[in-house]
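Quick bug: 7-cyano-7-deazaguanine synthase output formatted oddly.
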Amino acid sequence: MKITCALEDFNFSEINSDLDVILFEYTQDKSKGCIGAKILREVYDSKLIPHEKAWDLVSIALSVIAADQAGHRKKSPDGWTRNFELTISVIDSIFWNEQKKLLETLLSFLTTDRWELNFVGGGEYPKLHKDAFYQLEDCVSLLSGGLDSFIGVIDLVEQNYKPYVVTQTVRGDGKNQQDFAKKLGNLAQFMTNHNVKVPFPETPASQRSRSMIFLAYGVLIASSLDMHRQNETVTLYVCENGYISINPPITLARVGSLSTRTTHPVVLNLFQQILDNCGLNILICNPYKFVTKGEMLEQCLDQSILENLAHTTTSCGRYGVYKNTHCGRCVPCLVRRASFFHWKGKDYDQTEYKFDDLSQDNENYARFDDVFSMRIAILNRQELGTSKWIGASLSSNLIPDQDKQKHQDTVERGLLEMQKFIGDLGLV
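Here's what came back:
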């Protein structure tokens, strides 16, 4: 699929694309897509002064999101792998064309599609507020509304850091995310939504490229800090437990469609290379890459606030489907439930689940695909051993050799948490 993403005044007729997407504006033209219409205002209102390369990176990430929503997997030759030819308008097209092979490798790993990128001029730096200033926080942390990022910000605050938190509102839990930032110390917060609209979008909407835009927002804020202006390194915290970061396919059937790579070390390492090439003094850090979700709960530095608010965080992959309620049976919900079981034992989790009692032997509960697949995974790991069960999830040479065993051990502990939870229900 050939897609061009640019500002509204770009001469789209120069490129014969299947879809034209307007960046940073809405459009009434139903034949075109649009994305990021609110971001210019949010940058202005937040009085930010982002780096030019960081702004280009936002344009690139938005374009990827638009393509991900527009491309239909079922129309591809193998029913899964899509082919994208994506032209993006940026400020510095010469630089980004030098980076396109690295970006294509990152995107291919992240979405399991084939990407061909081309960068053209026409991008514009955002208008700044007359009182814009370099922000005084000492780090940036993504705050997704999920349990892991919530724990990450708690721990940063407890260690006397002053994080600027970045939130992408997509699941109807925006108020919760605002409340988290306030309750953790009235933290500065950048909240936005990409507001993508494309004709005939993929359904259900793809989520595989979501980390690209979330990381780009984080870089946007990190480059706006006074620390960065003074050439000090700014740490961008991307907090997620090590089991989900690797997210090994729990059965062979789930290798493609259901095993996302949002914070996989390969993704973060490739993204770090891009930042380094940009000359941005920003270090991506996942401090929990060797920690399970249950261990994160157990080791959190403020148990009191965690006990009060953990159940109000959001983990579910189908949260919006069930009217902003956790389903209780998708893989993220299962990992969440197992972590609460590890932390406080049975019956402590106060989260409301649509499908609560998974011990019921029917297709909505114990025999639901995710639950049944997880039961099989537990048995397969016991039979094969962890190394063989993980398969190629840790094979990349972009993962340091000294880290591979640590990642494997973390995945094993994460699955053992799941085994205890599932076992208590009598399902293994």
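Actually, after a second look the formatting is fine. The beta strands are 2-6, 19-23, 33-35, 83-89, 114-120, 139-142, 163-168, 189-192, 234-237, 282-285. Closing.
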